[in-house]
Design goal:
InterPro entries: UBR4-like. It comes from Timema californicum (California timema). This is (California timema) hypothetical protein. This protein is mostly helical. It has a domain of 69 residues. It is built from 5 helices and no strands. α3 runs antiparallel to α4. The longest helix has 26 residues. The chain is flat and about 70 Å long.
C-alpha cells in the first residue's frame, strides 16, 4: 500500500482504506494546479492560464457545505488562480449572486409567477 497511502494512514484506516476515497481524490485534484504551475515556471515559454470552467467549479465548491479542510483548499486555489484578493472576492461574490438569483427565478417559475404579467401597482386607475 505504500506507493498509494502513507503507512500512518493505513494503520489509522485498517478496516477500509478507501473509506475517505472521494475526499482524498478531491484533495489530489486541488493540488494538481500547483504542480502544473511549478512545471510551467521551469519552462518559461509556456504561459499558465486557467479556463473559465476552473473558476466556475471552484466557486461551486465554495458554495457547498463540504468539510472545512476541502473548502480551505478550494479557497486557497481560487485565490492563487485569481492572483489577488480583490479579484477573488469579486468572482466569488458574483458567482454566489448569480447562483442565488437562478434559485429565486426557479422558485418563482415553479410558483407560477410570470414576469411578463401586469402587477397590481402597474394598473392605471
Amino acid at each position: 500500500m505504500s506507493p498509494f497511502f502513507l503507512r500512518q494512514y493505513v494503520k489509522g484506516h485498517a478496516s477500509d482504506v478507501f473509506e475517505a476515497y472521494p475526499q482524498l481524490l478531491t484533495e489530489m485534484a486541488l493540488r494538481l494546479p500547483y504542480q502544473v504551475q511549478k512545471q510551467a515556471d521551469t519552462a518559461a515559454s509556456i504561459p499558465l492560464t486557467f479556463q473559465q470552467a476552473w473558476y466556475y467549479f471552484l466557486c461551486e465548491y465554495m458554495m457547498t457545505h463540504q468539510t472545512p479542510f476541502v473548502r480551505r483548499q478550494v479557497r486557497k486555489l481560487l485565490l492563487f488562480i485569481c492572483g489577488n484578493k480583490d479579484k477573488y472576492r469579486q468572482l466569488r461574490d458574483l458567482h454566489a449572486l448569480e447562483s442565488h438569483m437562478k434559485c429565486i427565478q426557479q422558485c418563482c417559475k415553479t410558483g407560477g409567477f410570470e414576469a411578463s404579467s401586469s402587477q397590481p401597482h402597474d394598473s392605471t386607475q
